[in-house]
Amino acid sequence: MFIVIIGHFKHSYASSRLRTDMKCVIMSQEVSAEEMEEIRESFQKVDVDGNGYICASEIGDLFRELGCSIPGYQVRELLQKLDRDKDSRIDLDEFTAIFKDMKDDRIAQGFRKALNKKEGIVAIGGTSEISSEGTQHSISEQERFAFANYISSTLEEDPDCKHVLPIDPNTGALFKALADGIVLCKLINHSVPETIDERTINKKKLTAFTTQENLNLALNSASAIGCQVVNIGAQDLKEGKPHLVLGLLWQIIKIGLFADIELSRNEAIAALLEEGESLEELMKLSPEELLLRWANFHLKKVGITLTNFSGDIKDSKAYFHLLEQIAPDGSKEGAERVEIDMTGLYEKDLAKRAELMLEQADRIGCREFVTATDVVSGNAKLNMAFVATLFNKHPALTKPENQDWNVISETREERTFRNWMNSLGVSPHVHHIYGDLQDAMVILQLYEKSKVPVDWDSRVNLPPFRAVGGGRMKKIENCNYAVELGKEKAGFSLVGIGGLDVFDGNPTLTLALVWQLMRRYTLNVLEDLGDGQVAGDDLIITWVNKTLAEAGKTSSIKSFKDKSLNSSIPVLDLIDAIQPNSVNFELVQEGNLTDEDKLKNAKYAISMARKIGAKVYALPEDLVEVNPKMVMTIFACLMGRGMKRA
User: Fold this and answer.
1) Using CA atoms, how far apart are residues 109 and 336, in angstroms rounded to an integer?
2) Kind of pairing between the strands at 136-140 and 121-125
3) What pLDDT is recorded for position 81?
4) How far apart are CA 248 and CA 577, in angstroms?
5) Sign (positive/negative) of CA torsion 502, 508, 512, 514?
6) Separation of alpha carbons 47 and 27, rounded Å
7) What is the mean pLDDT of residues 74-100?
């Protein structure tokens, strides 16, 4: 189901640069950020299997779903027209390029016409100056309906949301309900608990200013948990721009739904290991891939195999059998046996059959996200959310016995880096930090986002890697180039680090490179604000102490290792210096602090920093433990915010 339909563009492209998704940063110089985000989102809706490419079968499926089936030779003709590098599939850059000629090209016009016929899409005029020049946004009524119901049921007991809940899913009430930022903050905390300190949410007697603070807090917190919010501002949310709101909601909801679909948090997932597969290989699968593996694990018993959550589930047969396999059998203490009524399988009307299936899902507490229409139309996004709900509530997996596995959980540092990468919109999305960096594609994108030019044309081996061994040598060459860029162009300290270390996923050495990328990206913001002045630790510390002194604060810092930072008071004083009277010091613990007191202060400080507009990725524990790297990023982000206000 398409949220966005792209209209014609008034910009031109340099054809030599339209090669892969890795050059989206380059293209964004010619295409507005809003348009680029819309293109990416549209591409993801066509790419139902999420592999980063559109193949002939997906194009054919799309047209069939739209009720305008076309012969195979016409599908091949369309693919040939759009496939500029002749690899029999379409990547994001090729997908972007075709829209440039959409007004005059007959095939592209047919493609667009098909998109516009998609059931459940409501076209709306652009609400920004850019979009009013030609971009047309469309929203999915089904997604609005699903998200409104999900929020109403998820937050129904929260007294702070009573003023807007329940949300009428049949109107645009969802967008108004999010306008003050309270529901968004609560939803983020539901997906990733304790991301936002509740004490920092403005809840009563809201003004335009305090509403703006709530929305800043929500957006910067969403970024910190890995949502891409580059093209979304507080004003967009306040005005309720549907395509932006729905896109952000899906990211937040998806993070919460997928939180436990990983081996380190649910070791029973090891039951999904296939013959000859290592635990490490299983851990590298994305949550989407694991969901499909899980569904097929249960469906194998009845001889059904799913390849997607769109076309393959439209007849509800797979769902009926999946429900039968995972329904509680009464073996767990306190759980009653649920016998799934399978007679609905014989209902010939697909919509009625889907409704009967959902009635059975309701019996095990899983009727969420989809309606019968969503099932029959094959809405991939909502059906994936439905399957994730089934998995989270009734995984029906047992950890294999007699296996000596040491499943290592993601570290706090790894999670912070991963969320930072994803918030910048790297492609593919990073799920497993070492496995997803193995071909260096994400790292090379981070270089460009950090203002280090990348020679995509002659130095980078682009996917797909089809050589024997999965393109091992080509990936290592990319990693070698990534290390070379760090040493020769970025001035990184990479002593003893080679491309093979990145390819092999050496944790210490890989994170050393990623940290220097994050540091450079963070300091670039300061250099932009400071007329190109080179930013470094000394400059930041000097600015912090000067700002504190000018505001009459007694705290100061000597370095980013200063032990006094574990109280978070210097950070809170600086926040109050940047935005006077923003910090409620009655909530701040002082004196002889316990570990619990320090953590409370740190949680308050991190959320307050985000509330005044600083995009902080560090976690409260980083302050309590005085992690110098993350402490530096906190002060750098606050300095950036302070310089903007000056």
Assistant:
1) 55
2) antiparallel
3) 67
4) 31
5) positive
6) 20
7) 65
Residue 640, burial from CB neighbour count under 10 angstroms (0-12, 13-18, 19+): buried
| 98 φψ region: left (φ > 0), alpha (ψ -120 to 50), beta (else) | alpha
* One-letter identity of residue 241: K
User: What six digits make up the tokens of 199?
Assistant: 């004490």
**Given the structure tokens 């994108």, which residue do they identify?**
445
Tell me the residue length of the chain. 646
Q: What is the residue-averaged pLDDT of the chain?
A: 84
Single out the residue of 483, 290, 486, 460 nearest to residue 391, CA to CA: 290
DSSP string covering 179-227 = TTSHHHHHHHHHHSTTSS-GGGS--SS--HHHHHHHHHHHHHHHHHTT-
How far apart CA 226 and CA 208 sit, in angstroms, is 27
Taking CA atoms, 502 is separated from 415, 481, 509, in Å, by 17, 11, 7
User: Hey, how many other C-beta atoms are within 10 angstroms of the C-beta on 336?
Assistant: 8
Distance of CA 561 to the CA centre of its chain: 32
Cα separation, 10 vs 29, in Å, equals 13
Interior/surface letters 442-477, b for 16+ CB within 10 angstroms, e for the rest: bbbbbbbbbebebebeeebbbbeeeeeeebeebbbb
Q: For 210-226, how does the pLDDT look when each residue is reduced to its tens digit (9 = 90+)?
A: 999 999 999 999 999 99
Summary count for the chain: helices (H), strands (E):
29, 2
Q: Which residues of 184-221 are buried (b: 16+ CB within 10 A; e: fewer)?
A: bbbbbbbbbeebbbeebbbbeebeeebbbbbbbbbbbb
The answer to whether 338 touches 324, Cβ cutoff 8 Å, is no
- Which pairs count as long-range contacts for 58-66, CB under 8 Å and 24+ apart, including other chains? 61/310, 61/311, 62/114, 63/114, 64/311, 65/118, 65/310, 65/311, 65/377, 65/378, 66/114, 66/115, 66/117, 66/118
- At 140 the pLDDT is 82
φ, ψ (nearest 5 deg) of residue 197: -75, 115
Burial bucket for residue 594 (CB in 10 Å: 0-12, 13-18, 19+): exposed
Residues 574, 547: contact at Cβ < 8 Å? yes
User: CA-CA distance, 128 to 542, in Å (whole number)?
Assistant: 40
* Mean pLDDT for the stretch of residues 70-86: 64
Tokens (6 digits) for 515:
């940290």
User: Please, are residues 303 and 429 in contact by the beta-carbon 8 Å criterion?
Assistant: no
Is 139 strand, coil or helix?
strand
Residue of 299, 293, 288 lying closest to 268 (CA atoms): 293
How far is it, in rounded angstroms, from Cα 522 to Cα 200?
24
Q: What is the pLDDT of residues 250-290, one digit of tens each?
A: 999 999 999 999 888 888 999 999 998 988 888 889 999 99
CA distances from 28 to 38, 40, 132, 566, 573 (A): 12, 12, 18, 41, 38
Instruction: Tell me the pTM.
Output: 0.82
Q: Are 5 and 123 in contact (CB under 8 A)?
A: yes
d(CA 605, CA 599): 10
Confidence at 117, pLDDT banded by 50, 70, 90: very low
